[in-house]
Structures are given as C-alpha cells and as structure tokens.
Amino acid sequence: MFDDFPGNSPSLVKRRVTVRQIAEKAQLSVATVDRVINGRTTVRRGTALRVQSAAQALGYQFTVPMRVRTDEASPETIKCVFLLQRRASSFYQQLGEELEQTAQRDPNERFQLTIEHMDDYLEPAKVADTLRSVAGRVDAVAVVAPESNPVSDAIEFLAEQQIPVVALLSDLSSPSLAGYAGINNRMAGRTAAWAITRCADRPGKLGVLIGSHNYIGQEEREIGFRSYFREKGLEFKVLEPAVCLDDPEIAYQQTLELLRTTDKLTGIYNVGGGASGVLRAIEEIKPSRKLAYICHELTPVTRAGLSGGAIDLVVAHDLPELSRSALKMLADLKKTPSARKQSVVVPFNIYTSENI
C-alpha cells in the first residue's frame, strides 16, 4: 500500500540541483534519492521526509509525487525535558532555541520537548528536587548539573523508574547515569593553553577563572590547561583558579583583583561563564600591555569582545551538532535501554576576530 506524498506542489525545478547534492544533504545514497524523487518505488515515511527536507533546503521543487508507505506505524512521541542553567544566560537561551528547532526538524522522531531553566543550578539539593519532579511526566531527561550526592541520588531515583538521565555539557559520575553528550573538555582546555601561549606577548603568570569546582567539565578544562604547560615546560605560571560561580559580577571582581595585585600577568583563561565581567574589568583597568584572554561560547558579548580585540579566541560548542546528538541519544535510550553508559563527544569550534 502507498500514498502519493507531494513534498512540494508539482512545478518546474526552481534552480538546478543535482541528485547527488540532495543525497549528500539527506545523508542517503544517490540511488535511494533518485528512486524517491522520481516516484519509482514506495519508501518509508522517514526516508521521504529526509529527502523532502534536503531538497527544499537546496531549493529543489518536486515534479513527481513521492510514493510513501501507509502501512507503517507512526513514530511514538518521545517526551523529554532539558534542564539547563539560568534563563538570563544568552548561551543557554541559544541552546534552548537550537534544541527546539532541531526537535521540530527531525524527520524520524516525534518529540514533545520541554526546556526548563534552573536559576539555582549551583544548589545541588534544588537541582535534585527538579530532577525528581519530572518523574511520571517524561520519557528521558538531559541535565546540566554540578557533581554532588543529591544529584546522583536523584539520577538513581529516575533510573529505577526507567527514565534515563543524560549529562549535558558536563559529565557526572553517577553509576546510574545513562549517557553524556558534550565536547572533550580536557582537549578544550589544552586548546585554550595552546592559544594563550601564542596570543600572550611574553611568558608570565596566567589567571584562571572557574565557575565551580563541582562541574566535572570545567575541572577537566582546567586540568587540560595545566597539563599543557607541564608537558611543554613553558615559562608560564598558571595561578590557582578564582571561583566566580559563572556570575558576571563576581567574575568582574575576581578579574579586578587579578589585574591589581598580580605582577607579570600576561593572560586570563575563563573556564566557564561570566565573560562580560572579565571584559568589563579589563576595559576599566586598561592594562599597559596586551593581555591575552581566552574564554568559552560564542554569544553576543564574546562576539563583540573578539571584534574589539579584547578576546583573542573563543572555544565554543557546535550547538546544532550538540542538539542533534543529545536528542538522538534520548530517543535511542527510550527505545532501547542500555545497561552501559552511552557517550557522544561532539566537536567544538574555534573563533577568532577573523571568522566570526
């Protein structure tokens, strides 16, 4: 059995688009795409939707209806929640928007997506309460959370109810954790170290700002940063990190203290959030020599810092790839629960003033 699946209203091709281009965009074989767009055989609805989405993105309009099977079951709705950090953060606003768009575009899954922001994300008991509160109303959870016993207990509580929990951005050590989706944070820290040695105008002391030592991801970045200098034997001294709780005002105060009291300060590595506070302090003090500044995530603030020359390099998550990977992991865990922790390491992007 099959139905005609129009894709677009039949018309002439808007512009020249090859079958190979559509196949590459849809990540399908040329032969499969050729059969679909020429209506030569019936195909699964998911395959038809992938071809339709790719073709429309390239500007192709169908002249022959696609033939889609009608005897296959509709995809089951997957109810999932993403527990992100504070709503005021532009990075988490961007991530939430990307997740919603990715969920809507996915041709193979049907998501009922909820995005919740936790302003008390550094209070483990409150994060744990939020995790427990989703029981009974979702199929899977992704969370950005600090390492703590209350959070681990909440993950175990959900696991007992067959609700998998995935750590997003920063890994967690709970034995009941179902998966992790994010970058290789240790590699990101070493990349920041490599960059700061090339951006600093001389060897000297390097300040480090960290949001919280309870974030495994941020700890891994700091470890990677320090390991680079130990391994290379360079004449830089990495100072003990100042905790800023990812808060711009605290980061501002911590940076002022660094600038006023540290002689031979040649660079700052901001491991977590609060980038605007660091920029504010640098602008206020106006160091007599260029200060290398490396931070994370491309936001309107860090983009402006790169453009103006105050920030040398930004290490940033690839948000579209992170969103696709996280949603796919939640869908896979819902369909096929795994006794082993799953892990998806997504690439990170490097931004300078020349490629923003």
Strand/helix succession: EHHEHEEHEHEHEEHEHEEHEHEHEHEE
CATH architecture classification name of the largest domain = 3-Layer(aba) Sandwich
How many domains, as an integer? 3
What assembly state would you assign to the polypeptide chains in this entry? single chain
Rg (C-alpha, Å): 24 Å
Strand residue percentage: 15-25%
Distance between the termini: 50 Å
Class per helix and strand makeup: alpha/beta
User: CATH homologous superfamily of the largest domain, by name?
Assistant: Response regulator
CATH class of the largest domain: Alpha Beta
CATH fold description of the largest domain? Rossmann fold
Q: What is the 3D shape?
A: globular
Percent helix range: 40-55%
Structure summary, number of beta strands: 16
Uncertain segments:
1-14
Largest sheet: 7 strands, mixed
How many helix segments?
Answer: 12
Question: How would you characterize this protein structure?
Answer:
The protein has 356 residues and is an alpha/beta fold. The chain folds into three domains: 2-69, 434 Repressor (Amino-terminal Domain) (Orthogonal Bundle), CATH 1.10.260; 77-183 and 319-347, Rossmann fold (3-Layer(aba) Sandwich), CATH 3.40.50; 185-317, Response regulator (Rossmann fold, 3-Layer(aba) Sandwich). It is 42% helix and 20% strand. The protein is built from twelve helices and 16 strands. The strands form three sheets. Strands 9, 10, 11, 12, 13, 14 and 16 form a seven-stranded mixed sheet that branches. Strand 6, helix 6 (149-160) and strand 7 form a beta-alpha-beta unit. Helix 4 (90-105) packs across helix 12 and helix 5 (124-133) packs parallel to helix 6 (149-160). It is globular and about 75 Å long. Residues 1-14 have low confidence and may be disordered.
